[in-house]
Amino acid sequence: MGSRAIKLNQSSSGKVKTGNTGKVKTGTTGKAKQVGKARGGGGGGLVRKLLLLGFLALVVFVSYEYASLPQATPLLKENPKTTALMEQRAEEAREAGHKARRRQTWVGLSNVSKHAIDAVLLSEDASFYLHEGVDTKELENALEDAVRKGKLGRGASTITQQLAKNLWLSTDRSLLRKAKELILAHRLEESLPKNRILTLYLNVVEWGSGVYGIEAGAREHFGVSASSLTPAQGALLAAMLPAPRKRSPSSGSKALKKRAHWVIEQMEAVKRLNAEQARTAHAEIDKILSGEKADASEDEAEVP
Fold first, then answer.
1. Contact 260, 232 (CB under 8 A)
2. Is the pTM of this model over 0.90?
3. Which of these, 234, 164, 239, 157, lies nearest to 197 by C-alpha position?
4. What does the pLDDT look like over 105-135, one tens digit per residue?
């Protein structure tokens, strides 16, 4: 009897232990899983909150930047007294210890040589009268090129985009500046007719150190008015635009010579010049760049 009682106690004891152990293990595992789920859910919620806050901050930033950008409507009847590029160049000159130089004379399209206008359009933006501020095909090609090289280049900027940059933005090549440029180009196209945009561009674009606008550029480099520019002179001014402070006719730039001859070829290809006019222009470009024709700015020191 005692032996039987002892067995029963052992058996009961074993069942209790086994049962208790099982319950503890099961209970503990369940709680661990619940805690794990709670922790995982909390972490995911935090990430979502941070992403949402980041998105909202981006929306606020973009909205502020968009609202703070200037309007183009006043330019319909008023010429800008200065531009962001002019102010930047003046500051650079002061920092270098030089006196800021600025030569600029406003002229209308009717006072600019037709050949010079054609040269600038063909060199900088052949589709100017066809697009709405942005040449999407050229922009796509430029972005693909930028991805390959890992940086933004100059390409794909229409005349409208260049005008927006000159008027209101810096010369840096950041994506933010490019985004602003696209918005401002759209505003220019919405507010102004094409000829007004072209007029503004020709009068504010840089044509050498401290030289702004085609009238000042013509007098600076050739000693003539913008209305008297020959096809060769117009092609040289157009060829300067990618790097106007480095590619003056007196600089000996091979890139300037190559580009100027290319511009004349384009003018002939689209029937802006006949074969004889093109031959004459090619010869005049070589003559000017050889130094046979004096540079009107030779005796005048330039700001670096």
1. yes
2. no
3. 164
4. 999 999 999 999 999 999 999 999 999 998 8
